[in-house]
Every structure is written in C-alpha cells, then in structure tokens.
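Handout, page 2. Input:
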Amino acid sequence: MKKKFAVLFLVAFKSMKVLHYVSISTLLLFFSCSKEEVDPPAPAVSEYPKYFKFSRSEIQDFSVYNGSPNGAKEATANYSPDDIWGYRLSIPPKSITLYSDSILSFDNNIKKCYKFKGDSILVKETNESWSNIACMKSGKLIYHVALIYIYCLPYEGAQTLSIENSYQVFNYDLFFKTYPLTPSELRSSLEKIAWCNIYATYDCVQ
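Output:
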C-alpha cells in the first residue's frame, strides 16, 4: 500500500512540475510579446534633401548657318561656341538641390515645383506648363539647356537679334519648326542663326 501511494505521489509531482514549467514558459512568451507591442516603431529615414554638385559640362549639336543669296548656308566650321555666346556658355547652375519629391532649387535660390516622369525631371513653369530639364542616370543628374542665337535683317521693320535659353533640345528640324523662319529667308551674308545643347553632369554629394 505504501509503495502504491509513493508511486502515485511521484506521478502527481511530475505532472505538477511539467505544469509549472508550462506556466512559466507561457508567462515568458506573454511578456515577450507584450514588450514587442509596446515598443514604438523606428522613425522612417527620409532620403531628402539630395544635393547635387556640378561636375562637368559638354556641348553637343553646335550648328551655325549664315545667310546667302541662295538661303541659309552651314558655317559651323568657321565658328566656335565661344564666338557666338561667350560667357553665356557657363549658364548651368553650380548646384541643384532636391528638397523633397516635389521641390527643388538651382544654386539654393528660388524653389521650384518639379516631378519625375520616368527618369526625366520636369519643372513647372509660370504658365503652369512642364519643361523637361534633366534626367537621372546611374545616380547622377544630367541637366540640359539649349542656347539659341538669331540675327536677321527683315525686308520690312527693324533688325532682329535674339539670344535665348531653352530647356528644349534642338536640332535643325526642330529649330525651323519652333521659330518663324525658313532657310530660304536668310539671304544676307550678315544674317546668322546658331544653336547648341549643353549637357551638365552633377554628382550627388548628400
């Protein structure tokens, strides 16, 4: 009888011991989960502002046409971009800052609204239109601007001298499509038109 009671006691003791371990494990799991729920999530780190510093620039599509009795005649080989625009060739800003995903500035001056369209960066103009000014390529910002030179002697009225900047990338067809001129109208040797596209590369130094 004593032996049977001792066996029953050991069985009961072992069951209580197992229950005790299970209870402790459950409490530890509860407190662990509670701690994870109480801790606030880590604040998100913003990728802005992004600061891009001027690295280098390249002139492409430089073209010059002089007037002649037979109309516009290419004369690019007789000129250099500096002959036409001089100091204006240094037009690209020294820095471009993206303050957010919608606000940027050139050389930390007036802020402008912008948006991405694929890899392209478009800036909102005062007339509410959007101009494509740059693109992102391999972590670098490539900014582009065109320089336009027009000197004409119309048959009626005053002479025309126009030196302009444009975000549009120009070529021969686009030039004569954009401006109210045709090659045949340039009949004086004094008349001249020219354009070039400047591409400036900026490195991210954030």
